[in-house]
Specification:
It is a single chain. The protein is about 85% helix and about 0% strand. The chain is mostly helical. Helix 1 (about 1-50) runs antiparallel to helix 2 (about 50-65) and helix 2 packs antiparallel against helix 3 (about 70-80). The protein folds into two domains: about 20-120, Tetratricopeptide repeat domain (Serine Threonine Protein Phosphatase 5, Tetratricopeptide repeat, Alpha Horseshoe), CATH 1.25.40.10; about 120-205, Tetratricopeptide repeat domain (Serine Threonine Protein Phosphatase 5, Tetratricopeptide repeat). It has ten helices and no strands. The model is unreliable at about 5-15 and about 20-25 (pLDDT under 50).
Length: about 200
């Protein structure tokens, strides 16, 4: 009986020790998580204060501690983009998509950053600003900005297409024909450019 009692006592001690060890591990994990969140809060505070270098440094620390931290990935990508660091922003948006594939915001900005990297920052910004004016009905200003995008990047096919389209809508048929021909020379399969060019030539007859 004593042997049995002793065995049960030892078993009880082992269970307690095991439970304590688990609690310590959980507590340790919680502490690590809290530290990570303090770094994240620090990064955001630096961002709010305009101390962007420190904000980037702290966001990177967060991601070293937790590579799947969605908020840190989002804010770091956004900050890179605001600073005009589009390659870094693209890589960070892509990392966020890997962690959260259904994120529509990240998917949208991946496309935006890809275009900026491909076309160049200034041409793309002119192109985007042109569309904003076009959507407000200011087609003259929009055309001017599309032409600027074309001048800044002679291989920006979409800018030529839109310059041709807006020129056509404004009744500048010679100009529209030139831009649409250029758009087609850059992408011979562009059906919209083909259609618009045909419409321009019909108007010129």
């Amino acid at each position: 009986m004593r042997t049995l009692g002793f065995s049960l006592l030892m078993f009880g001690f082992l269970i307690c020790a095991f439970s304590l060890a688990i609690a310590q591990v959980q507590e340790s994990d919680n502490i690590e998580e809290l530290v990570t969140e303090r770094y994240f809060e620090g990064a955001y505070n630096y961002y709010q204060e305009g101390q962007y270098d420190m904000a980037i440094k702290f966001y990177k620390i967060v991601l070293e501690r937790n590579p799947a931290h969605k908020k840190a990935l989002y804010w770091l990508a956004r900050l890179y983009q605001e600073l005009g660091l589009y390659r870094e922003a693209l890589a960070t948006w892509q990392r966020l998509l890997e962690v959260q594939p259904e994120d529509k915001v990240a998917r949208y900005f991946v496309k935006v950053c890809e275009e900026v990297v491909k076309q160049g920052k200034e041409p793309f910004e002119a192109y985007e600003e042109a569309y904003r004016f076009y959507s407000k009905g200011d087609k003259e200003r929009a055309l001017s900005l599309y032409e600027k995008a074309c001048a800044l990047n002679p291989n920006f096919q979409k800018a030529y297409l839109w310059a041709g389209r807006v020129a056509f809508e404004l009744g500048y048929y010679e100009k529209a024909e030139w831009y649409l021909e250029r758009a087609l020379s850059l992408d011979k399969e562009d059906k919209v450019a083909k259609y618009l060019l045909d419409q321009v030539r019909r108007k010129k007859r």
